Amino acid sequence: MPYMRPTLESSVMKGIWLWTNSFAVVAVQVPLFPLRSLPPTANDEMPPSTTPGTRYVRERSLPADNDRRLRWSRSLQSAVGSQECLDALSLISIDATSDGQASFIDLPDDITKFCLHTLVAALSIAPQVCSIGLVPEIQATNLEAQWISQSGVTEERPFFDLGLTGKDQVVAVSDSGLEIDNCYFVNDGGDIRKDGSVDMSQRKVVQYVPFADSEDYRGGHGTHVVGTVLGHRSDNGQSERDGAANGVAKDAKVAFFDIGRGSSGYLSTPRDKAGLLNYGRRAGARIHSASWGSEYNGYGIDEYYFDRYLHSNDDFLLVIAAGNSGPSRGSIGSPATSKNCLSIGASQSAGGDITSNMDGPEFLARFSSRGPTRDGRTKPEVVAPGFYIKSAGAQP
To answer: What pTM was estimated for this model as a whole?
Structure first.
């Protein structure tokens, strides 16, 4: 699925985040309407205004050759005093992380770029605000895959030969949803309770956290991803057999965290990224797979919290898809730009899964996002089959 690239020239984003040195600045003391007032310069003149305290930046006081400053000036003046902008700003909501260092501002869907510019400019001059960033919308980004990942030699699976099939392991996955009645996940003890509790007696699904909702849509991304990771076919939830879409760790179990918002393709993750990872950890998982992200290739608040969690829990591995925005340079997306995660690009396939527009498993899929990150780091670190992969299909 395509990702969305948020910029200040478009309101295609979920919101903005603030890194502050004071919990109160956003949680309590953000005065929405005074924020539209701009500090005057020495040469500014105050034009007549019916709005007390509103100040204007005169274009003639800015260098004529500084096009960016002129554009910002015009944009800010278009919003100042605008009833449409005041109405939009009155609808924003504010949330803060548990440590009080970061706050999030959810933006109305119809906020204009002029109102957004005004809000960002006003926040940027507050002494308690250390930095401001975007919160982009995130979206969801096998037999052949088994031997390609294990050996690169046709039909040779040395991990399986040594008994490394995922047995007694739990993998955490966050995605659009999971059809637990699918033959690749069906449990012999009935359906798992979808309340975040853990039941290790289940054959495949030992935990289901209904954060956004509690099911997958038809042909859903999450069911496909979990099938690729650990699907193992069973017709009755007890005896298992090889299926055409068995996963790469077919004997592992899954702790699933549902972040899908219906069939929209958009995902909703917790502000507190430790909460996202801790659920699976409590179920015994030490690997978390996240095949989702955005086109934004910078380092933001989500990457910081993921990196902090992984630094504090050095027995835990977060595996994140690089994205589907290739083949251009620098197209890898957040949160795969994290420093402590393992970012995975997509290679082409082989055998029965290869198509006429592929060259083989030694080649990158054209859509696979490339590095480097915005700050010049090499990403992704690893590639694995991700093009035309046969896996479990959601049929709710």
So the answer is: 0.75
